[in-house]
Amino acid sequence: MASFVPSMSSFKKQGPAADREKLEKDQAEAIAKAVNPVETSVKEKHIRSAIIGTWQEHGANIFWTCLGKMPLPSQVFMCWKAMFLIHKLLREGHPKALEDSFKYRQILVDMYKFWELSPKGGYGILIARYLKVLIAKLDFHKKNSFVPGNLNTVKDDRVQYASTDVNDYFQLSVEVFDYMDALIELEKTIFSTLDRYHSNSQIAAVQCRICPFPVIVQECSGLYVISVDLMYRLHSSLPVDTLDGHRERFYAHFKELKSFYFDAGNMAYVKSLVVVPTLPENPPSFLPTDSKGVLRRSTSYEGPKTEKIPLPSQDPKRQSLMEPLTVAMSEPVVETMIDESDFFGSSLQDGPPPPARFERYYWQLF
User: Fold this and answer.
1) What is the pTM assigned to this prediction?
2) Cα torsion 57, 61, 64, 65: sign
3) Nearest to 205 by CA among 307, 336, 340
4) For 107-121, how does the pLDDT look when each residue is reduced to its tens digit (9 = 90+)?
5) Quick one: 135 and 58 in the same domain?
6) DSSP letter string over 215-275?
7) Which of 54, 270, 339, 352 has the fewest CB atoms within 10 Å, i.e. is most exposed?
8) Where is each ENTH domain found (predicted)?
């Protein structure tokens, strides 16, 4: 009787090693699909797959390893989408993913130094601004480990803190304002690069540029809740004159956020992905008898209202993006053909030329 000789294919890996290999393959595939070189927005299903991978791994080492194999320094679209994907991962990934990402901070700093040399108006400068946001977020969470990645610190209708010392409240408020500065700078820079005559959010190329808006809305909302609570706590413990600088920064942020929420809330693309909150008509005065200025869910478009607190001067590029919310999101997204000249009037290769051996040296750090 002839003996049976098993083939090599029957000896498949089993156990943790096989699971790890499959996870690495799935993560690499999801990240490659999300961070593609086409000027379109990142699909939500690819973002979800990458985020779910961090929960399966209980960390983000595989994510960063896969990302490090991509030619980000030479591909503006890929690098822009990678920044957005990292932001989503830091916010929604496994809690350990945020901690794992701290060791890659210097990589982001080096990338910022590279992309900040880009000319204004293109993706290069947008990438530099986004890198500042990611660095600011890592620094914020490094100093305040009690704050989760999604910035939701509310429990039982109260904001929870690691300490009740007024000095810690003072320092935390400064760090909240610093991160808010970076987010506002990013959204304003994005608006400044949009063409006022072609910047409808139904266009794929526009969606690529504004894809960070939903996560910026979420981040700013979380920071606003924390900052309002901190300001009331500080005003109940410190002299009013001591907090002049804090109030100045808060009111500046209030005006910027009110303008940003209004503009973003009238963009069909943003409204389809996130609930844009509505700020109160006037900022809180932080008097003991004053009610806190809480966020409210945004309702349907009601048209511009007369505000008692004047908004910053409106940029015509931002005004052109105010779309009626009657647009049916079931309609197909308008696909645009991009030729050698950029849709927004700048070259597709709008980043600085990589120095000799930069890319090879850079990714060796991984």
Assistant:
1) 0.78
2) negative
3) 336
4) 999 999 999 887 776
5) yes
6) HHHHHHHHHHHHHHHHHHHHHTTS-TGGGHHHHHHHHHHHHHHHHHHHHHHT-HHHHTTS-
7) 339
8) 19-148
